[in-house]
Design goal:
Layout: H1 3-6, H2 10-18, E1 23-24, H3 25-35, H4 44-56, E2 60-67, E3 70-78, H5 80-105
Antiparallel strand pairs: 1-3, 2-3
Amino acid sequence: MRSQLLKGTTALLVLGVLRDGELYGYEIGARIRERSGTLIAPGEGWLYPTLHRLEAEGALEASWRDGDQGPRRRYYRITAAGLRLLADQEREWDAFTRSVRQVTRGELADGPA
C-alpha cells in the first residue's frame, strides 16, 4: 500500500487494535498486518513514533514487563481519552472515505457528513 495513503491513519490503526486489549509493539504491528490481510505492514519508522506520541497525548498508557523468554517488553493499553480519540477519528475516516467514493463515482453528496 502506498505510504501516502497511510499518512494520517497510523493513530487510527493503532488505537483500533488496542481497543481489544493491551499489546506490546510487535503484537500491535502483527495485529495490523493480520487484520489488513497483510496489505498494511507497519514498520518501526512509523509504529513506534505513533505509540510514543499517543502515550504523550494521554491516549495510551504503557508499562514495562519481563518477557517469558527474552527481553522486557513495553505493553500499551488504550485510555478513556484514547477511546474518545478513536471514536472521533473513526467518524472522520468514515466521512472522508464516503466523500472519496462520492467523488470517484460521480455521486452527489447528501449534505453535511
